[in-house]
Amino acid sequence: MRHRYFSVEPAQQRAALALYQGVKDLPLLCPHGHVDPRLFADPDFQFGSPVDLLILPDHYIFRMLYSQGISLADLGIPPLPTAAGAPAPAANHREIWRKVCAHWHLFRATPTGIWLRDELADVFGISLKINRANADAIYDAIDAALKSAAFRPRALYERFNIEALATTDAATDDLRQHQTIRDSGWNGRILPTFRPDGVVNIGQAGWRANIERLSDLAGSDVHDYASYIKALESRRAFFQSMGATATDHAALSAYTEALSAADASAIFARALRGEASEKDAARFTGHMLLEMARMSSEDGLVMQLHIGSWRNHNPQIHAQYGRDMGADMPIRSEFTKNLKPLLDCFGNSPALTLILFNLDETTYSRELAPLAGHYPILRLGPPWWFFDSWLGMTRYLDAVVETAGIYNLAGFNDDTRAYPSIPTRHDVWRRVCADWLAGQLVRGFIDEEDAQGMMRALAYDLAKNTYKLDA
Amino acid sequence: MRHRYFSVEPAQQRAALALYQGVKDLPLLCPHGHVDPRLFADPDFQFGSPVDLLILPDHYIFRMLYSQGISLADLGIPPLPTAAGAPAPAANHREIWRKVCAHWHLFRATPTGIWLRDELADVFGISLKINRANADAIYDAIDAALKSAAFRPRALYERFNIEALATTDAATDDLRQHQTIRDSGWNGRILPTFRPDGVVNIGQAGWRANIERLSDLAGSDVHDYASYIKALESRRAFFQSMGATATDHAALSAYTEALSAADASAIFARALRGEASEKDAARFTGHMLLEMARMSSEDGLVMQLHIGSWRNHNPQIHAQYGRDMGADMPIRSEFTKNLKPLLDCFGNSPALTLILFNLDETTYSRELAPLAGHYPILRLGPPWWFFDSWLGMTRYLDAVVETAGIYNLAGFNDDTRAYPSIPTRHDVWRRVCADWLAGQLVRGFIDEEDAQGMMRALAYDLAKNTYKLDA
Amino acid sequence: MRHRYFSVEPAQQRAALALYQGVKDLPLLCPHGHVDPRLFADPDFQFGSPVDLLILPDHYIFRMLYSQGISLADLGIPPLPTAAGAPAPAANHREIWRKVCAHWHLFRATPTGIWLRDELADVFGISLKINRANADAIYDAIDAALKSAAFRPRALYERFNIEALATTDAATDDLRQHQTIRDSGWNGRILPTFRPDGVVNIGQAGWRANIERLSDLAGSDVHDYASYIKALESRRAFFQSMGATATDHAALSAYTEALSAADASAIFARALRGEASEKDAARFTGHMLLEMARMSSEDGLVMQLHIGSWRNHNPQIHAQYGRDMGADMPIRSEFTKNLKPLLDCFGNSPALTLILFNLDETTYSRELAPLAGHYPILRLGPPWWFFDSWLGMTRYLDAVVETAGIYNLAGFNDDTRAYPSIPTRHDVWRRVCADWLAGQLVRGFIDEEDAQGMMRALAYDLAKNTYKLDA
Questions:
Q1: Per-residue DSSP letters for C226-256?
Q2: Closest by alpha carbon to A202, among A296, A260, A288?
Q3: Which of B25, C50, C186, C226 is buried most, with the most CB atoms less than 10 Å from its CB?
Q4: At residue C125, does pLDDT exceed 90?
């Protein structure tokens, strides 16, 4: 349906369709996401079964099923090796698929429901409704497609018309897969992104081991704060040499603090000795955001900040199944006060770009748009996670554009590990923008020239410029 | 007007009307509210004058009139016996009614205005506009109706097509009215709801007396924490034997805390001695929410939690007129952190249902929908109090459905003490849902089958299942 | 375009246009704003160049340009005399204008963009689109107009059909300009507003000097708290004698506290000695809000409270350019708890009107509307600053009317220093209200009589009554 999702008011629908058609064939830019680079390192990569592809990695899907009493074991999710006594996961993928389809009404009017329906139609050519009756037919059709050469990730890259795709990689990743991709001579553009959380969060399990690994990879012993900073700079340079244009940072809050060198060194030393407190950890994270801003204003890597997800909120699920199991919960966020120390130092820095994401929609109009409408370093990331939905994106445009304009936005990113859902996610964004701009156009807030310029910016240019993908 | 309140866009209006007509004759389920059971205990109950029925018990009405300078005395509200020097209330009900009608423009575009207009039209058959000129004619028509047998509560129960109606009853209520109803052989289904706030809030005036009464009713001396818990369990069992399927709990915040048995006992002992501090009270309330969740996961009573109303905000009104005088004010709420101790213990409990209500709309998309979209015990109550309005309900659906779906919602409850307004309140909810679903349908997010299934669920099934009314 | 901005749904558009046409010729009431009284004191006042008029005083414009990397110097903004090493400002106004026009796409879909476009069309008769190509033609047309007698402020006052316009004046202003206006015999109504922030905020630079000036103007030595209060009362009486009907107060939060006379005196004494702490300052501000409410309930001046702007958030801009440079940022606000001490004392005061403004939209439905729907002293100011926009005003009506009705609103005020933009700002408000009411009308929430009454109230009556401009 060409005009799916658009307003049904005839004038607005016509305008939306015209705007959408002007951009629907533009290439896709995917500057932030979690696709595994192995998909592209191996030219013959296969996705496995429909359940391997669509269910097991998708915590959007199993969180909802779990909320309605379906166990993760019944969905085939393997428990952690350390989880004593956890139930054995279902192994029959067809049966798992049938169970999912039988409960698919749970996803009515949700983005997950819309994405999968559109992905089946647009990527797999399957227009059957997902339900119990059609479960087997759909399973067979997906399964057959996945076995074909047309569904190798590199072939889909071409078919999806992707221009660039960034992965997200730990600072301690050796980027071997990225090296393999580069060596292969394939002309797809897969970029790494520098994500240092594992070596920054001194309170996190495994931090000490990550520091060892950082030493190894940086080729220098990290034994104090100075050598730590040096090793990080070295890793950033390596990532940049491998094509990275951006970094990514996650934190519970946007708290920033400029520690003195002495304080930073002392906390780091305590952390190395395993003696850092929770308060040390929070202050050090806040300080390292400033330090990363300093590095970005020197090396030019675009800085992304994702705020406000309380990870692993359900201890029972975490103990049995680990991370990313649909149990991450948003908390209230604050930027005006928390970011001030960083902005005091770097807010007017000509070489820095800082993209902000969070899960508290109240910040859109109250803090994010006013801040981005003044500070030259700031850009607003698209609606994140739970808000990457038709209404979520509409509320975002409603809340930020009047104050920040659209040119302080970072365009779209799909932020997904579900590679075949990428075209659908971009399509929804482009349709939302077309419909929103059409509303502005038919009511006379903007004219045709404005609408077309804004449409192209939102669909393509803003992501390209913000993430420096034109290099 | 068949299509009142629906979108005027023709396609959406047609779809909304069709969806609405599919459910408008379904019975009404009223699983949470404040109707007095005496209405049903006495088969000949009469409502009194139009002012007795519509004005004196309705703080929605007199709060607005008070905000515009009309005194409660002029509206006939009696002062507390303890309020020395309070003005005598107006006694002439016709004059009070005239005053209300003369100021009825204050209620333009408010739910109170809409409810009363629709109630007059749909329940009383009065289509005159409420204003000064029509005051007497309306008064006379209501008055005449109220004297007729058709306006006895039991007759209205049949006419309203109510299937079940729950009252809200203190843990220390002997449920005598409910017993009378059961003994009468009438086949209406009136259920009690267990509300233990008066025996849980150790900081509240009258708590000690309530504990005495609890001892009496439970037939055992409540002299320590253990006997207190036992008495509560005994009262729950009694309520359940009288038909209760649910409990209800009100608190200023969603703070929960798992006290050790020793700490709980110590605080309880201090409370009995009249020595509990404010902090004790807050911790004890938070602990008792866990304890009530524990009991519910054992006895199966559905647990409701109403959060975020600052009661009796205006001390002058409180001193002169007491509680429920239109001076309760919402405060900001938080769930992700506050509920965690309870969820850590009972979040995955197969037998527990916890329904959340609050007065801070920012929690809908940021906390409530993500939590309900994961934890199997959680359901979201419908928009509460100030938000039980066309726009309030629309914002609620906009904010929660994309993340939680509709199957993690508890359907509708009217939460009213204004018995004759019940059909109107349900009608508004059903119309909002029909219009919202029609919007989803005509834009292609859902299809006809989805829309009809969701419509029926929102209008009837979700309330029935969530509150276990199918037993 | 007669129906610009209205909904395009034909029935709603027709209704909106009819409502709008019923009020578009009503006089403009401007009860709160920042127009300089000198404009009216000098009958021959000229605005200077188009850049003097439209760019240099408008931080809405240069904040957005600055956010996209354009320096304030390039826009002609003069640095503070104290700012050593600041770049010299551009002096060629035509070049500055060209630069602004070349970047005007940044303002697409923003209120700034809409205001300037409508102002050029409606006030200057210029219908050219603002862009690089048209820059010179527009500059010349504005420039020519500004030189004509028709563009003297007093002539515009008549043409704009302004009925009354209030300026905002420090408590230490001698109101000389206002005296000149009164003496001139001109029949425009320009009122001062009493703004005591400079003598209340004991932590603010310059407070001591302001107290000296207060002593001089009040003709009595302010040497302790009692003489300070007396001096303030004397200034209020003077402002009132000069036509003032209102006061205005700004604070970071709505915190209020009733200090004892002893505590207030002690803090004031510490402040005089330069020894007041930050906490002293916050408590004193909170206390003075109560004190001002007390004075207002005696002298009848309407009290305005503007909450939640973190002023001068960017220290580099503040050091080089000073205040009001587009770097003021909203913060989260709270009223239910913070205002309680004030409401406990004066919430039921028959003679007091307190108008609330803030920059946190979450307070609209959660706190402001419930408070205003009960306390007789409260009125809600229109959406402030970043929210004085089409969508901002729509969200405000959506959020407050169902709970507070419209009769607890203060109508509109333009809050601008950009005098020629006043008709445009009022026009947008009137169109928003017409469109919103039309939506209520065509869906059957209100009838024609209601809609027309509400339209007139929102466009004119509420401002007149709330600010006591009918005196």
A1: HHHHHHHHHHHHHHHHTT--EEEEEESS---
A2: A288
A3: C50
A4: yes
pLDDT of residue A1 exceeding 70, the answer is: no
Beta-carbon contacts of A74 under 8 Å, excluding residues fewer than 6 positions away, are A90, A96, A99
Per-residue pLDDT reduced to its tens digit, B313-368: 999 999 999 999 999 999 999 999 999 999 999 999 999 999 999 999 999 999 99
Asked if ipTM goes beyond 0.90, one says yes
**Is B310 in contact with C336 (Cβ distance < 8 A)?**
yes
| Residue C398 touches chain B, beta carbons under 8 Å | yes
Q: How far, in Å, CA of B14 to CA of C152, rounded? A: 55
Please answer whether residues A463 and A411 qualify as being in contact, where contact means their C-beta atoms are separated by less than 8 angstroms: yes
pLDDT tens string A74-127 = 999 999 998 888 889 999 999 999 999 999 999 999 999 999 999 999 999 999
Stretch(es) of chain A classified as CATH 1.10.2020.10: 46-151
Q: Are A214 and A247 in contact (CB under 8 A)?
A: no
CB distance from A360 to chain B under 8 Å? yes
Chain C residues near residue B129 by CB distance under 8 angstroms: 447
A108 DSSP 8-state letter: T
Instruction: Give every CB contact of residue A299 below 8 A, 6+ residues apart in sequence.
Output: A233, A236, A237, A240
CATH of B10-46+150-466, one of 3.20.20.140, 3.40.50.1580, 3.40.50.720, 3.40.920.10: 3.20.20.140
User: Are residues B384 and B412 in contact, defined by beta-carbon separation less than 8 angstroms?
Assistant: no
Architecture of domain A46-151: Orthogonal Bundle (1.10)
* Rg of the Cα atoms in chain C: 23
* 8 Å CB contact between A199 and A58: no
A33 has pLDDT over 80: yes
Closest among B462, B442, B469, B464 to B19, alpha carbons compared: B442
CATH 3.20.20.140 fits C10-46+151-466, yes or no: yes
CB-based contacts of B9-18 (< 8 A; 24+ apart in sequence): B9/A8, B9/A9, B9/B442, B9/C9, B11/A8, B11/B442, B12/A8, B12/B435, B12/B438, B12/B439, B12/B442, B13/B438, B15/B437, B15/B438, B15/B441, B15/B442, B15/B451, B16/B431, B16/B434, B16/B435, B16/B437, B16/B438, B17/B434
Q: What is the distance in angstroms between the Cα of A149 and the nearest Cα belonging to chain B?
A: 32
Report, at the CATH architecture level, how domain C47-150 is classified.
Orthogonal Bundle (1.10)
Closest-CA residue of B relative to C13 is B8
Query: Could you say which of C6, C63, C315 has the minimum Cβ distance to residue A443?
Result: C6
Q: How far apart, in whole angstroms, are the C-alpha atoms of residue C459 and residue C24?
A: 8
- Round to whole Å and give the CA distance between B109 and B107: 6
